[in-house]
Design a protein that fits this description.
The complex is a heterodimer of chains A (about 375) and B (about 130). Chain A has about 375 residues and is an alpha+beta fold. Among the domains of chain A are: about 140 residues, Probable tRNA modification gtpase trme, domain 1 (Gyrase A, domain 2); about 80 residues, Alpha-Beta Plaits (2-Layer Sandwich). Chain A has 8 helices and 20 strands. In chain A, the strands form 4 sheets. Chain A has a 6-stranded mixed sheet. Chain A is globular. Chain A starts with a strand and ends in a 7-residue tail after the last strand. Chain B is α+β, with helices and mostly antiparallel strands. Chain B has one domain: RNA polymerase II/Efflux pump adaptor protein, barrel-sandwich hybrid domain (OB fold (Dihydrolipoamide Acetyltransferase, E2P)), CATH 2.40.50. In chain B, the strands form 2 sheets. In chain B, strands 1-2-3-9-8-5 form a 6-stranded antiparallel sheet. Chain B has a 3-stranded antiparallel sheet with strand order 4-6-7. The chains are: A alpha+beta (about 375), B alpha+beta (about 130). At the A-B interface, helix 7 of A face strand 4 of B.
Chain lengths: ~375, ~130
């Protein structure tokens, strides 16, 4: 098992620790629901140091990014960020990730912890005929996500650079809490606003202390991965291994909006995915809410009114902000229209649910 | 972490409080803490007679679901209706208002197979 720099810290402040994506991580501190609500209304801090960071550099950097990414990185300018996925050659997805354009010959790809090795191998393989420079910095970089409506206001205290008016999905390198060259990014996985901050492991404890000191007047709290999952699901954000995986296509998984079939860009499996787009997908990921009482969970079967299996649940939970059981499901396209009644098989009973438009949380 | 002295405990973390031939069943403070925020309690077994270790219901927390089992055999007489509206009573008062079912025991001798508070504390590493 791997440890982030903060593992001891989490234990000291009473976190419940679990293994997640091969890392020893805090699932909750005070309690999932309290933490979830605190991020929606104030500010919370997530240790997301387990995430992977891979740099693509050199004159061929953009060529490699364009080839492996579903999105069009050529529209990025310095300091801009884009969400994308790596389509594989068999119709699925290797991973989803963020692309940071540092300059025209340097990009940072931030990938899921569970997929770092797979992504690295994938990039090395795809790079063979391109020849960009690749560097895996995952073990050297720590990351905190400071999320919530008060996050930027609280973090402004730690830097002279203006950050409160930064556009969504942009970043800057700045001196933060006295540490130079901190990557400060207005991104997140909660829908609550805020930032994600990347720095070297050796600065991690200093930055943690500074963040909590600056946040004191805003009642800043540490937040576990449990609330991270419920926050993201209420927003309808996909999670690798749930809504998307090696055998679900970007178009089926709801990532059509980041799959760009433009003339100036070829990418892995483009022709097949374009054909899928033209023919229409046979199944797709939808959001649903329970009508009958029950909580949907990953891999539960989804049924039609005659008990025929039409798909499975990708993610499910009781939504702490929406205060009802919600989920996503990969189902046959003919049942995907918003407002369709479907049934979730929970403990051998078919319980009624209805497909809805995401996000679930509109706050 | 509270482990009450006057109760018997099962390996699956249910407690049982004996009242004559009847008994109340709930889950321990340890178990509610492990589950986290409880959002739904599903007990479809009222009126049924179940054997020891058979599931009588399920507890849904935000993150996970866990079945709950009969510490001894018996007929499920009643479900704690207060949990319909406020399942988190199991979190806030696991041995009191958070009781889950009332049963009529088939064979009270089965109680002898359960742990007392001392043995249960050892079981969960307290």
């Amino acid at each position: 098992m791997k440890y982030t720099v903060y593992a001891k810290k989490h234990e000291e402040i009473g976190a419940k620790m679990v293994e997640f994506a091969g890392f020893y991580m805090p699932i909750q501190y005070e309690g999932l629901v309290i933490e979830h609500e605190h991020v929606r209304k104030a500010v919370g801090v997530f240790d997301v140091s387990h995430m992977g960071e891979i740099y693509v550099r050199g004159p061929k950097a953009l060529e490699l990014v364009q080839w492996v990414s579903s999105n069009d990185a050529s529209v990025l300018t310095d300091g801009k960020i884009q969400y994308a996925c790596f389509p594989n050659t068999t119709g699925g997805i290797v991973d989803d990730f963020l692309v940071y354009r540092i300059n025209k010959e340097e990009y940072l790809l931030v990938v899921n912890a569970s997929n770092i090795e797979k992504d690295w191998n994938w990039l090395v393989e795809q790079n063979k005929k391109i020849g960009a420079e690749l560097y895996n910095a995952s073990d050297e970089i720590s990351q905190l996500a400071v999320q919530g409506p008060l996050a930027l206001k609280a973090m402004q205290k730690l830097t002279d650079e203006p950050i409160e008016n930064m556009e969504y999905y942009t970043f800057k390198y700045l001196t933060f809490a006295g540490v130079p060259n901190v990557l400060f990014s207005t991104t997140g996985y909660t829908g609550a606003g805020g930032c994600e901050i990347y720095f070297k492991n050796e600065d991690a404890l200093k930055i943690w202390d500074a963040v909590f000191e600056a946040g004191k007047e805003f009642d800043i709290k540490p937040i576990g991965l449990g609330a991270r999952d419920t926050l993201r699901l209420e927003m309808g954000f996909c999670l690798y291994g749930h809504e998307i995986n090696d055998s679900i296509s970007p178009l089926e998984g709801g990532l059509g909006w980041i799959t760009k079939f433009v003339d100036h860009k070829d990418f892995v499996n483009k022709a097949n995915l374009l054909q899928q787009k033209q023919e229409g997908v046979k199944r797709k990921v939808v959001g649903f809410e329970m009508i009958d009482r029950g909580i949907p969970r990953q891999d539960y079967e989804v049924l039609d009114e005659n008990n025929n299996v039409i798909g499975h649940v990708c993610s499910g939970t009781q939504g702490p902000s929406v205060k009802k059981p919600i989920g996503t499901a990969l189902i046959k396209t003919e049942y995907a229209k918003v407002g369709t009644e479907i049934y979730i098989k929970i403990r051998e009973k078919a319980l009624k649910a209805i497909t809805v438009k995401m996000p679930f949380y509109k706050g | 972490m509270k482990i009450l002295e006057n109760l018997k405990y099962a390996k699956n973390h249910e407690w049982i409080k004996v009242e004559g031939n009847e008994a109340l069943i709930g889950i321990s403070d340890f178990a509610q803490h492990e589950l986290g925020d409880i959002v739904f309690v599903d007990v479809p077994s009222v009126g049924e007679t179940l054997d020891k270790n058979e599931a009588f219901g399920s507890i849904e927390a935000v993150k996970t679901v866990s079945d709950v089992y009969m510490p001894v055999g018996g007929e499920v007489l009643a479900f704690n209706e207060a949990l319909e509206g406020e399942p988190a009573l199991i979190n806030s008062d696991p041995y009191g208002e958070g009781w889950i079912v009332r049963i009529k025991m088939t064979d009270p001798a089965e109680l002898n197979d359960l742990m007392d508070a001392t043995a249960y504390k050892a079981e969960i590493g307290l």
